[in-house]
Amino acid sequence: QLLPAGTKVLRLMPNLPCVVQAGAIVFARGSRASDEDAALLQSLLVSCGLCEEVPESYINIHTGLSGSGVAYVYLFAEALAEGAVKMGMPGGLASRIAAQTLLGAAKMMLETGEHPAKLRGDVCTPGGTTIHALHQLEKGALRATVMNAVEAATERACDMGED
């Protein structure tokens, strides 16, 4: 509203891993921005990682999912490593293995296109270690807690946009 009439607007939201060219960026274009403008922006940003054009209404959701989500992943990685330290593994090694575990899992999701539930099921064997561990995560309401975190961050992004 404050820009001169006819101004081309492309709104984008990156996340921190863009620093290492492994980020996730979404962008939305205003009514004056053309297909060529969007293609140019995408060509400039693709070196930062995943870059997708989305409806404007998804920008705040992306903030809750991916902008803030990076911190959720760091917290989870820290918890994984601390669990290994508790069981006797040195901290540095545990942190490296936790990071590689997250990287490998994410790479499998992206490269196979499989739903995370299917990939999770592939890891479980009847009566095995993974299903016992997943039961503990479910008792702690991990999925509901993460969904609530995305919701809270999205709502806060919406509130901040109105200020």
Summary of the model, kept short:
The chain has helices spanning 35-45, 59-67, 69-86, 91-112, 116-123, 129-139, 142-162; strands at residues 10-13, 23-29, 49-53. With 163 residues, it is mainly α.
Description of the structure:
The chain has 163 residues and is mainly alpha-helical. It folds into two domains: 10-54, no CATH class; 68-161, ProC C-terminal domain-like (ProC C-terminal domain-like fold, Orthogonal Bundle), CATH 1.10.3730. It is 61% helix and 10% strand. The chain has seven helices and three strands, in the order ββαβαααααα. The protein has a three-stranded mixed beta sheet with strand order 1-2-3. Strand 2, helix 1 (35-45) and strand 3 (49-53) form a beta-alpha-beta unit. The radius of gyration is 19 Å and the shape is elongated. The two termini are 14 Å apart.
Domain module count: 2
The CATH homologous superfamily of the largest domain is called ProC C-terminal domain-like
Provide the CATH topology of the largest domain: ProC C-terminal domain-like fold
Q: Roughly what fraction of the amino acids lie in strands?
A: 5-15%
**Number of helical runs?**
7
